[in-house]
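Office hours follow-up: a student asked to see two folded examples consecutively, so here they are.
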Amino acid sequence: MWESTQNLADTHCCSCEFHLNLRLTISLATFNDWRTIKMMRSALERNLLQHGFSLANGQEGIDFVSHDGHRVVEHQQAGHGVRSFYLGLMRLALYLAKHPRVEQGCLVVNRTRMSRNRLEEEWSKTTDVLRHDITQRLAVIAIEDDGVWFQPHDEFVTWLVRTAGLDTRTPQASESVIHVSPGPKTHEVLKVLLVHWLQRHAPVPTGELADEVGCSYPTVRKALAKTTARKAVHYTSNRSVAFQMFPHDFWSELVALSQTHRQSFRFIDRSGDRPDPDRLLARLRQLDVQSIAIGGVHAARFWHHAFDLHGTPRLDLIFHALDGTVDLSFVKKIDPALGLSEDSSKSPVLVVHPLVRARSLFVENPNGSTPYADPVETALDLDDLSLSVQSHQLLTHLRPEVRLG
C-alpha cells in the first residue's frame, strides 16, 4: 500500500516538474519574442527619427510621421495571424481615407507567422476591397524570421526597408540560401503577357495567365486595368487577353522600377584576374544547376543572331525562385573566387536575378544545356547594363512595331 502511494506521489511530482518546465520554456520563448520585437521597435524608431520622422504618439494608430506630413508609419508590434494583419491594414486604410493629404501610409508588422504566399494572398484580398485611391497609398512591411516581405516595391517602401534597418535579405558571406520578396503581382501579370506578345503567341485565357504568374483572377483583372497598360490590352470573345500594341508607358515604368523589383545579387571576381564571363558560362554548362536560365547579352544573341555588341561585359543569370527562395550555392561551384558585392562602383562579372512567379517561361536551349530567359527578362538585363539602345534593338527585332523612339 505504502509503495503504491509512494509511486503515485513520485508520478505527481514528475508531472508537476514537467508542467513547471513547460511553463518556464513558454515564458522564456515569449520573453525572447518580446525582447526581439522591442529591439526592432527601438531600431525602427531610432532610424526614422534620424531621417526626418517624428513620433506621432499613437494618434489614430499612427506611430511616426514625416516632417512634411506626407508619409506615416504604423508599427504593429504583435501581429500574429491573419486577423491581426487584416485589422492593421484596415485601420491604416481608414486613416488614409480621413487624411487625403497623406501620400503614403505603411504598416510595419512583426512576426505574422504567415507564409509569404499567405501574406501575398491576404494583401491581394485586402487591396481588392478598398478604393483605388486608398490602395495606391497603402503599403505593408512584414518582418519575419526568414527575412522581410513588403508591398509595394516602390521608392519609399524600399527606402524604409533598407534605411530604417529592417532589411534582413542581404546575405552574409557564408550564406547561400536567401529569401527574397516577390515584386508586385500586377507587374508580373503584364510582364508575362508581354512575353507572349513578343513571341507572337495567341491570346492567353485569363485563367491560364493567373496560373502562369501564380496569382488570383482579381489580381489579373487589376493588372489589366492599370493606367500604364490598359490602352494596349485587347480582350477576345472567349475571355482571352493579349496586347494589341507595345505598352510604352508600362515598359518605361518597368525599367524605372526594375532594380528595386528584381533584387539582384551581384558578384565580383576577388582573385584579381581579368573577368571572363564566357568562361563562367562554359563552367555553368558543365554543372547540373536547376532553376537557372541564361540572360543578358548571351540571351540577347540567342533571340537576335545579329545582336550588335562587341564583347560580353558580364554573365546574367535568371533564377526561378518559385517561393522566393534563392539558392546561390552554385556560384562557388562556377568559380570559388566569386564574392557578393554591394559596391556600385565595382563592375560585377556575374549577376543573378531572382524571378518569383509560378512558371519560369524559360526557353529550351537547342543544344540541350542551360535554357535561356524570356525576351522581357533579357531586355531588362540589358537596361540594367545601361544598354538601352541594344534593349530597343532586341525588342524591335522581335516586334518591329515596338518603335520605342
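And the second, which I mentioned at the end of office hours:
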Amino acid sequence: MRAQTCTAVLDGAIAHLVDAEAETEAIVTDGGLPFTVLIGLPDSSVRETRDRVRAAVVNSGELWPADKVIVGLRPESLHKPGGSLDLAIAVAVMAADGTVPARPAGQPVLFFAELGLDGSLRPVPGALPAALAAVAGGISTVVVAAQSAAEASHAPGVRVIPACCLADVAAWLRGGPGPPPQAPGGLPGGGPGNTAEPSGEPSKGDVVVIGEVALAVAGVGWTPVRGGLNEVRTSEYGTRPLPARSQPPEAADQATTPGPDQGAP
C-alpha cells in the first residue's frame, strides 16, 4: 500500500515543499526481517530518521509495519537536511500501513515537526516560512509542534493544528477531537488566538515578526528612516543598527567628509 504526505525544508529564509511517499512491500525471502529504506537525496542526519521515527511510532502505541518500508522524498534534486521531515514520514508510513488516513476529509495537510523517541513533537526552525510555502502550494492546514503554533499562525489564510505528541496527531487524523486548531493569523492584526477584527494598528507581536522577517529577507537593504541613516526604528522597541555597508555611498561620503563648521584635523 502507498501513501503520501507533505512537509517542507528550509533553504536560507525560504521553505520548499517536499512530498514524503511511503510504500510497504511484503518480504518474500526466507528469514527476511522488516527494514526501512530512505531515498531521494536525504541528508546524513535524515538517515537517522529511520530509527527515530520507528521508535516514536511504537512508543505512541501505534504499530510499525512488519514489511519492507520504502520512503521516497521528492523532489529528489532538493537537499533535505534537518528533522522537519520526521512527522510527515511517520504519518506517511502509518497511512501506508492503513492505520491512519494521510488526508483528513480529503484535504491536504503539511506536517512540520521533529519527533522525539517518546513520540513527542519538537519545534524546528522555519515554521512561518513553511506555513507560507503551504499556502502558496494550495495547502491551508499545517500541523506543527505546540511551541511553533504562534509563529506559523502569522501566515495569512492558514489553519494551524498545534500538537504535543504523535498520538494527538493520529487521533486527529482518525476524526477524533485531537488538539484544538489555532485561529488563522495574518499580518497585520492577526496572530495566535486573535479572533477580533483588526484594529488597524500593528500589535506588539506583529512588529517583532515583521521586523525579523523583513531584515532576514532584505539582508543588508537600506531604508532611510528618522533617527539616522544607520538605524531601523521599530515602535517602542527602540532602534537596531544595520551593518555599515548598508549605507548608500553618498551617506558614507557625508560621514567621512568634514562639514563647513568642522575644521580639518
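Two things to take away from it. The mean pLDDT is 74. The chain has eight helices and eleven strands.
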